[in-house]
Amino acid sequence: MKIAVIGAGAIGSIVAAYLSKAGKDIVIVAKKEQAGIINQKGITVKTFEGKEVIRVKAIEALDSEYDLVIFTTKTQDLEEAYQHNNKYLDNCCVLTSQNGVQADSIMGVHIERDKLYSSIVMFGSTYIRPGEVTFNFKGDWVIGKPYAKIDSKLQEIAEELKSVANIVISDDITAMKWVKLFVNFNNCIPAVIGKSMQETYSDMDLCRLSIKLLKEGYGLVEKAKINLLSLPNFPKERILGMVNMPEDEAAGIIHKTLTSLSKEPLYGSILQSILRKRTSEIDFINGEVVRLASQIKSKAPLNDKIVDMVHSVENKGKFYTKEEVKKIFKL
């Protein structure tokens, strides 16, 4: 397959680098500064074992038709990315990879639904600077079709992508995305205080806040009767268990899990955007349950507040202290 990756951030750089390393016919669509650095120096991928430089061709916009185009931009940048590249998107297969549940709705307006594929990224990476990323931890890459049945083309795409991660095919990718949304709930608190996941969740009070946000969000999804489907190696029952167990016990699990995810500092996707002075995807993660609450004539005061705080950090460039967060949420 002739493949293009649109977006040279944390995930896009990993995907393009490992596809190129596997000998695939691959280009990465990047901003001018990023493209220049990647073409000159390649993409440096840092892991716990060391680092390697992988050569990848970078361009500033699609220059021809491709068999598969993978969008790895943040959800809030999807429409702009589509408009910037739509000259060559009519006949290709398109794969989304964004957090949250809105990416397929956004792209479904433009792309023929039988050619639209969707995915959930379960591996973790951090964007350091143009052409340089840290591969924090390995994980599955779940792919499916949001609006059509699994077909032979999906199997072909899975075969092409297996050099990046273990590929899992789902027949209900949307239901899985709601579970992944709750996994990503933990990104908001590090973004508010400007700290790594490890440092943030070494504080038990902030672990308790994470559980409070999760309980509120899960309650709204349950009230809206939205179907949830387990992710590979992350059963939906784990979320249900966290919601129903005593708060201190659940906070202990958050503490243990998120302080040991990576030996390198891990900055969630929301904070990574803020550090790059770009808008974050908060409206499509915690903001998604705020939107849902409005739709079902309910309320999500905790998640509403955390979304506002992230926007405040984006707009003012000033992080909250841990003490300020604890006071606001009465921890």
Describe this structure in words.
The protein contains 15 helices and twelve strands. 45% of the residues lie in helices and 18% in strands. The radius of gyration is 19 Å and the shape is globular. The longest helix is centred in the middle third of the chain and has 20 residues, at 204-223. The chain is of the alpha/beta class. It has an eight-stranded mixed β-sheet with strand order 5-2-1-6-7-8-11-12, sandwiched between helices.
Kindly list the characteristics that best describe this protein.
alpha/beta, 2 domains, N-(1-d-carboxylethyl)-l-norvaline Dehydrogenase, domain 2
Give the tally of structural domains.
2
Q: What would the principal axes of the Cα set say about the shape?
A: globular
What series of H and E elements makes up the topology?
EHEHEEEEHEHEEEEHEHHHHHHHHHH
Give average pLDDT, whole number: 95
What's the layout of helices and strands?
Elements: E1 2-6, H1 10-21, E2 25-29, H2 32-41, E3 43-47, E4 50-54, E5 57-59, E6 68-71, H3 78-85, E7 93-96, H4 103-108, E8 116-121, E9 124-129, E10 132-137, E11 140-144, H5 152-161, E12 166-169, H6 173-183, H7 188-193, H8 197-200, H9 204-223, H10 236-244, H11 247-258, H12 269-275, H13 286-295, H14 301-316, H15 322-328
Parallel strand pairs: 1-2, 1-6, 2-5, 3-10, 6-7, 7-8, 11-12
Antiparallel strand pairs: 3-4, 8-11, 9-10
Helix pairs in contact: 9-10, 9-11, 9-13, 10-11, 13-14
